[in-house]
Write a structure and sequence with these properties.
The complex is a heterodimer. By secondary structure, chain A is an all-alpha fold. Chain A contains 14 helices and no strands. Chain A folds into 2 domains: about 5-50; about 75-290, MetI-like fold. In chain B, strands 18, 19, 20, 21, 22, 23, 24, 25 and 26 form a 9-stranded antiparallel beta sheet that branches. In chain B, strands 1, 2, 3, 6, 16 and 17 form a 6-stranded mixed beta sheet that branches. A 5-stranded mixed beta sheet of chain B has the order 11-8-12-7-13. The chains are: A mainly alpha, B alpha+beta.
Chain lengths: ~300, ~500
């Protein structure tokens, strides 16, 4: 902006107009955002408040408890809740570990190796991925049942279900690996590194956000899953994950005694995921957009 | 499979009778030989019972192990599955399902259809049927044969009200209750718009019926439903009075008393909740009456029950042992124990007349309402969705006679569609009569063999003197025998029945 214009009254007026305009549009945007965040947060706060309500245990028509207390959280220990929680945790951790390894190996292979059916394989997996997973429900159940991995043994069964097709989720990390210059690989290879060493020592350290993104999504899937967990555990408390277990408290004969505990359980379930996200948020954003950034 | 089933049934029958003998004070000393205790053994089983009934069921199974003199030891895992969900869960995978399970009777037909229930032996069936409420027995029977053990008779609904809003003098009249609620700006909660179970109350109140017919295999064959009738119109008029009120709430949750309700129609399962919320102000009453054209109609209701089912077993010994356990779990003492610990209303007649049971205000009201209720027999699964729409249609009608009639017609059309026959079925001929073990109650298929010739698909073992007819469209509008009379078989033999049509009449011949 030239100096002359600063003294030009008409120009100043114009700038003021711009500022006012900006202010109005910002206000509108903020109002919309505030309303949206209130809408998003209300259910969450309702659950938190309900979980501290101790004067009654059924669904009440108000949000703020009349008497506050930790009874609901303490009472969780008297039920199978921690068993379900442990089940879910084991499943999620094992799946997160195995699935991450599989996905990264898959992506690396598809990104760096050139073999005959590479293109065909990728297309095949793309088409396969278009079918909804629910289609396989019944046959999966039969297979797992024959393997003895349903009901009380649902935990290994569910792990198998979650990691079975995980190789097909290679898109984001392959996209990221493609952006890492091939010359790096070649330099390492000339220095005598094996293919595996290239992956572990050269590529992965550069792909931290992608690794973390993969771990996070692999952990979140089983952590919140309901459908598969529900029918593979088939009403056997010992094999339930936390979502299925909590849902069983909502039946007509239990809800009057368990509703506030249900809310407490919901809060406890949210804790590890929240912590995980808070710690890894930075990488997560990088990871989601990682495939699009030139390295 | 049939053989196994036959053995199971035979065993159940024998031991069912044996159990009666023992129960009747038979104290002959027992020898410990294997022949005397053919059921002795340890059985690992799985049981589904509602969460609040879980501990009691475990205790009762332990008691059974201690007291039974048949040498049966049951090692049971009891999983918490609500009676309302048991049917759906069971049908998902019967093999993986429990050996003994509690279920609400509305799932009965589906469970029989799916082969998830093992019927009682004739002896046991008779004893159990005599000891329990006929309504509950009907809910667990098909054509007089029990398929599950009656356990409770408390799945019905009545009215809870807030005495500070609705004076006791008003509880008999729907109009007065609505006026009280509107005056106090409090809600009248009656789940008419989302549940056919509650909605049927109005129609039962004016004497309408919806009775479903089923064949011996548990398949629905027809319905006698007169909701779309003059009486049904009265019911719709009464219903309009409530659903058109701004203070009507379509809900059946006891906790609504905390959010502005003064009346809630629900069942025993909400008793504790309502009592905690209302305290001394809690009132319970039969459903009220409504007035149409100067006449009073007492609202009806469904009375339902819980049953205990036994899954068919491949090991007949285990099957028989399970039946012993199921019978034990549902006998007089166990039902009383359940009443004492869980306040579950017994199905056992002796228990129902117990003074303590009668003194429970909720159950007493429920049993009083039962005088106006229909036992919830076997009802087609689609009915629940078809029925619940009536209240919405009634509300939208604006209360005009035409609108109400349209609402009922809409309902009727959907019911009719359930059993609509295709053109082909309407024209098809069948054999019916005292043949092949049936007695004029089953249609045997015939196949079109030529322009005017129909032949029975099966061959029949016929005796001289057996009578039958052929009919079209499985009804009696068009039927042919020996002219208009029944066709009489002249000589014993195995025959294919052949019908040759000529215009409106036809002749029957038998082919060896």
């Amino acid at each position: 902006m030239s100096k002359k214009n600063d003294y030009d009254p008409s120009e100043i007026q114009k700038r003021m107009g711009m500022k006012a305009k900006n202010r109005i549009s910002n206000t509108v945007i903020y109002v919309v955002l505030v309303i949206m965040s209130i809408v998003w947060l209300i259910p969450f706060f309702c659950i938190v408040f309900q979980s501290f309500r101790v004067e009654s245990t059924w669904m009440a028509g108000y949000v703020f408890p009349q008497k506050w207390g930790f009874d609901n959280y303490i009472n969780l220990a008297k039920t199978d809740f921690w068993k379900w929680y442990t089940n879910t945790f084991i499943i999620a951790v094992v799946v997160a570990a195995l699935q991450t390894v599989i996905v990264l190996c898959m992506s690396y292979t598809l990104s760096r190796f050139r073999f005959k059916i590479r293109k065909g394989l990728m297309k095949f997996m793309l088409v396969l991925g278009l079918f909804p997973g629910m289609l396989t429900m019944i046959i999966l159940y039969r297979v797992l049942k024959d393997l003895g991995m349903t009901q009380a043994n649902a935990v290994p069964g569910l792990i198998l279900v979650y990691i079975a097709s995980s190789g097909m989720g290679y898109y984001v990390s392959k996209g990221f690996f493609d952006t890492v210059p091939k010359t790096l690989d070649e330099a390492a290879r000339i220095d005598g590194a094996t293919r595996a060493q290239v992956l572990w020592k050269i590529i992965l350290p550069m792909a931290k956000p992608i690794v973390i993104y993969t771990i996070l999504t692999a952990f979140m899937g089983p952590w919140g899953d309901f459908v598969f967990a529900r029918y593979i555990s088939m009403n056997t408390s010992a094999g339930m994950n936390v979502a299925v277990g909590l849902q069983s408290w909502l039946s007509l004969d239990q809800i009057n005694n368990r509703y506030t505990m249900f809310c407490a359980g919901g809060v406890v379930v949210a804790i590890p995921v929240t912590i995980l996200f808070l710690c890894l948020q930075k990488y997560y954003v990088e990871g989601v957009t990682g495939g699009a950034v030139k390295g | 499979m049939k053989k196994v089933l036959a053995i199971v049934l035979a065993l159940v029958m024998v031991f069912g009778l044996a159990a009666c003998g023992n129960g009747g004070g038979n104290t002959t000393p027992q020898n410990n030989t294997a022949d005397d205790k053919p059921l002795a053994g340890t059985y690992k089983i799985k049981v589904w019972a509602a969460e609040n009934n879980q501990d009691l069921t475990k205790k009762q199974i332990d008691d059974f192990n201690k007291t039974n003199d048949m040498g049966i030891v049951i090692e049971a895992t009891v999983e918490p599955v609500s009676e309302a969900d048991a049917g759906t869960n069971m049908i998902t995978d019967i093999e993986a399902g429990p050996d003994i399970y509690w279920f609400a009777q509305d799932q009965f037909a589906r469970l029989v259809n799916a082969g998830a229930l093992d019927k009682l032996g004739t002896g046991a069936s008779k004893t159990v049927a005599e000891a329990n409420d006929p309504g509950v027995v009907a809910a667990g029977s098909i054509n007089g044969q029990l398929w599950a053990y009656p356990a409770t008779s408390d799945n019905g609904y009545f009215m809870y009200y807030d005495k500070s809003v609705v004076p006791e003098a008003d509880v008999k009249s729907l109009e007065k209750i609505i006026a009280d609620c509107e005056a106090a700006k409090k809600y009248f909660a009656f789940e008419a718009q989302t549940s056919a179970w509650y909605l049927a109350s109005w129609f039962f109140g004016t004497g309408c019926k919806s009775e479903w017919e089923m064949d011996n295999d548990g398949k629905y064959t027809g319905v006698k439903d007169d909701f779309n009738s003059a009486n049904g119109l009265i019911a719709a008029k009464g219903m309009y009075k409530l659903v058109s009120s701004p203070f009507h709430l379509s809900s059946s949750k006891g906790a609504e008393f905390e959010s502005g309700a003064a009346v809630v129609v629900t069942g025993m399962w909400d008793y504790d909740v309502v009592q905690k919320i209302l305290g001394d102000n809690m009132g319970v009453a039969e459903l009220p009456s409504f007035e149409v054209d100067g006449k009073q109609y007492h609202l009806g209701s469904f009375n339902g029950c819980k049953l205990v089912g036994v899954k068919p077993q491949t090991d007949p010994k285990k099957g028989a042992a399970l039946h012993q356990l199921a019978q034990y779990l549902t006998d007089y003492d166990r039902q009383m124990e359940r009443f004492n610990t869980l306040s579950w209303g017994p199905a056992n007649l002796k228990a129902q007349s117990d003074d303590k049971v009668k003194a429970n205000p909720g159950l007493a009201t429920l049993f009083a309402q039962n005088a106006y209720s229909q036992p919830q027999g076997q009802i087609h699964g689609s009915w629940w969705d078809i029925g619940k729409v009536i209240a919405d249609d009634v509300k939208a009608s604006g209360g005009t006679e035409e609108g109400l009639k349209k609402a009922l017609q809409n309902y009727q059309d959907k019911i009719d569609a359930l059993f609509a026959m295709s053109e082909e079925e309407k024209n098809a001929w069948t054999v019916i009569g005292a043949v092949a073990g049936s007695n004029w109650d089953k249609d045997f298929e015939m196949k079109k063999e030529g322009e005017n010739v129909w032949k029975s698909v099966d061959k029949f073992d016929l005796k001289a003197g057996d009578e039958f007819k052929c009919r079209q469209g499985k009804n009696w509008d068009v039927s042919i025998g020996n002219g208009g009379d029944n066709y009489k078989v002249e000589a014993d033999g195995t025959y294919t029945i052949v019908l040759t049509l000529s215009g409106d009449s036809g002749t029957i011949t038998l082919e060896k």
